[in-house]
Amino acid sequence: MTNDDLKNIIAQGESNTVEYKQSFNKAVIETIVAFSNTDGGKILIGVNNKGIPTGISITEETIQKWLNEIKQTTEPAIIPDTKIIKYNNKTIVVFSVNEFPIKPVSCKGRHYIRKMNSNHILSADEITELRLTSLNYSFDSFEVDTDFEELDKDAIEVFRNKSGNSGRFQLSGNIKHDFARLGLIKNNRLTRASELLFGHHLTNIHLGRFKSETTIIDDLMIRSPLVLAVEEALTFIKKNIRLGFKFGGTGLQRTEHWQYPIPAIRELLLNAIVHRDYSTPTDVIVKIFDESIEITNPGKLMGGLKIADLYTDNYISRHRNKLLTEAFYLTGDIEKYGTGYKRLREWFSDYPDLQFSVSDLSGYIQAKITLSLTNKKNEPVNEPVNEPVNEPVNEPVNERQKQIINRIKIDPSITIAKLAIACSAGRETIKRDLKLLRELNIIQRVGSAKTGYWEIVKPKQND
Which residues contact 203 (CB under 8 A, 6 or more apart)? Predict the structure, then answer.
């Protein structure tokens, strides 16, 4: 390293890969460990925290003493490359540290990583994740006791059809053989990914429609195989957001215009499922409000990735669950190459009234879409839809309300509880549907609430 090199490093300031220290101390070793567990870096000893070279006094034995202390207090033992440079008549010692291949590295039993220009101690879960990542393992690759015969046949068939149609995987006539090729079967046993994708598991997607932060008017808990769960979640979301229409073209063709771009919602759901931390029992949470939607999943960004990186096109995508990522890539649902947020920005460009943001909530990642405050009085469609958000009325009645009518035709005495089960909806939602159908004079109640029955209103004939 030359004086010019050192001058350039000092000019750039402290960062994810540069640290200043006026003297050698325990904090230097912690930084060496943090650099080893992240992207490597350089520590300049003899430079104060303002970037001013102050120099340091050393003897022939000083450096060897420091290196011995570093070696004895780090596990695995780290020995940084050392340079002594004379800079403006001051002695500067530069420790250069490479990223260590097998992580995590510790200092007296404590593990650190580098974030921005500071060191952060790792939790037990983060230590485990860092170890798995460095060994090229992922949580979803571990073997489970589930038998192949226990897997959902419909989910497997959906996977076969979608992966075949995408052209990304050449299927054989033997699904077990295909699973083994994909790592979904290892040592003749199913992996955790197989169980999540196609089996019965204890992880949930919990969706709710809220009228306020504390008032929920519809909810759904999904514990289906993940191959099926995405569309189930999307169906619930579409049921609880607005749908209007745009008119254009010479023929005044009518096109659907949802409150939020549906491809973006699907992408965010897939991100939450693929990147969530499955070592924790916490659910993926979807909250739908009148003017916003939030999708939150447990798990942090991987590989030192920061929220700010997601708003650029130059970040490297890291995958916590490699087998899940591969499976949804093969079905054509996602891309593996970090293009998801670029495509999200493109989809949102057609919705100028919406604001999209991603937040790190201390162990959780939350994606949020909000109608801009300046535009909350304007519907994002040419044809206004003034019904409540949970009632996506694009015809006199929607699909759920048609189902209610058909159920009443079959069983006029059907209860609200039975309608809720049949329509996979909450009781309050069914009550609102019945009220609307009565107001539209499509149905009527005959008799009391307890002993009466429903009747389909017959249209009056013109004289």
Answer: 196, 223, 276, 278, 281, 283, 284
